[in-house]
Design brief:
alpha+beta, four-stranded antiparallel sheet, four-stranded mixed sheet, 19 strands
């Protein structure tokens, strides 16, 4: 039973085992779920390609175990703090605040002794959706560096972020990044870690043939696609195109690893895909359906590419002044305690306001944009909540305006994905 304790007690007082209407559960040997589940689409869904077998390498996002110490919005502030950390000339207050004491899983002082400060270790990292921060990243120091995957994201790259488990309100654990990514980039701190699937793998300086088993010709800077041969061959057979191992193809005769990425990104943003396979998305990574035609593949590639540009905040549409929310009131621009607060406009939904304090607000935020979740986060709310007691700079305000546009366009494109899929026969699309 779910709900208030009072209601549960009342029900228990009025009922017993014999008077209760029980529901018989039929469990399968693989998972033995002790909850009612709709598995009518199971055979259909399991014909799709396992994401963990499509990508050669993937791993959980990095974790520092001391985010307050190793992350910051300001690069120079972070640099000064880490220099002090390495100097060991900090106060007891500093040591307490940043928990510079060994734990059972992370001996921070011993790790510090294995390395020294290097300014080049300060890199941009996706901390939460649309929230890139500076991180001091050193595999010898970082608690869980995820080096096997993260080293490939120190170069020009793209990566898919998703989780093995969904949020309670539905599958929304999908995002992309072109930087390092933390374990909470699309997931809640206490429930699950996001996994990172890079598009390309780069060789080390000492071993240029590290990925010989992948059979791919070397591309830019010696990189190869992080895709299994079995997956690519099945994909190529489905779309009747030749695979090129770097960049994109022309989608008439060839396709590349980035085209595959864009296609997957579009499919995973399909509302119908999320609804139809919701039972299976609760328990494992999403699976990839093969496109039934070259035309469907091409159209979904184009939409997926638009989504990627929006989520990396690189789309030209983000510069459209007509789409931008307004921040019309002057003030100290501090996100005060108890904020942000959303106030809907009863007659004109497009005029919704997000207040950051009593007098200042962003105007032009639709309710569906305010409610839009990625992973476990209501994006427009979480981004501001993480900046409570901070003054928003001009760049921060501009960044938030772009987030609002990006989410609005994401909703529009998600609907168009379903329209495209329906036009080609609907799900299943292979």
């Amino acid at each position: 039973m779910y709900g208030l304790r009072k209601n549960k007690y009342e029900w228990l007082n009025e009922n017993n085992i014999k008077s209760t209407e029980w529901q018989v559960l039929e469990t399968t040997s693989e998972n033995n779920f002790f909850v009612p589940r709709d598995v009518g689409k199971e055979s259909e869904y399991h014909q799709y390609f396992d994401l963990t077998k499509a990508f050669f390498i993937f791993k959980n996002g990095l974790s520092t175990d001391r985010d307050d110490l190793f992350f910051d919005y300001d690069k120079e502030v972070l640099s000064k703090r880490i220099k002090l950390f390495f100097s060991k000339e900090y106060s007891r207050e500093f040591k307490t605040r940043y928990r510079i004491v060994a734990s059972s899983s992370y001996d921070i002082e011993a790790r510090r002794g294995q390395t020294c400060f290097n300014h080049s270790n300060i890199v941009r990292t996706l901390y939460r959706p649309f929230d890139k921060r500076f991180l001091y990243y050193d595999p010898k120091l970082t608690s869980r560096p995820g080096w096997q995957v993260m080293r490939h994201l120190l170069h020009a790259n793209l990566a898919l972020l998703t989780c093995r488990q969904e949020a309670r309100k539905g599958f929304r654990h999908i995002l992309c990044t072109d930087t390092l990514a933390g374990r909470t980039a699309v997931s809640l701190e206490t429930r699950e870690s996001c996994s990172v699937f890079p598009v390309y793998l780069y060789p080390t300086s000492s071993n240029n043939s590290l990925f010989g088993d992948l059979y791919w010709p070397l591309g830019k800077d010696g990189r190869v696609p992080n895709l299994s041969r079995e997956f690519v061959e099945e994909f190529a057979q489905s779309v009747k195109l030749k695979f090129v191992s770097d960049g994109v193809g022309d989608l008439k005769k060839t396709f590349g690893p980035e085209d595959v990425f864009h296609y997957i990104y579009a499919v995973f943003h399909s509302p119908e895909y999320r609804r139809r396979y919701s039972e299976f998305l609760k328990i494992d990574f999403p699976r990839v359906p093969m496109p039934k035609s070259k035309q469907l593949f091409s159209k979904l590639c184009n939409v997926g590419e638009e989504l990627v540009k929006l989520h990396l905040l690189e789309s030209l549409i983000l510069e459209d002044e007509k789409k931008r929310p307004r921040f019309p009131v002057e003030g100290n621009s501090i996100v005060e305690k108890g904020y942000p607060k959303y106030v809907a406009h009863a007659e004109r939904p497009q005029k919704g306001k997000v207040y950051i304090n009593k007098g200042q607000y962003f105007e032009g935020v639709k309710p569906e944009v305010w409610e839009f979740h990625i992973g476990g986060y209501r994006v427009c709310e979480k981004w501001l909540k993480d900046r409570r007691q901070r003054e928003l700079s001009y760049e921060d305000i501009s960044h938030y305006e772009k987030i609002v546009i990006a989410l609005g366009e994401t909703i529009r494109l998600m609907n168009s994905i379903d329209e495209i899929i329906v036009a080609y026969g609907g799900l299943p699309i292979n």
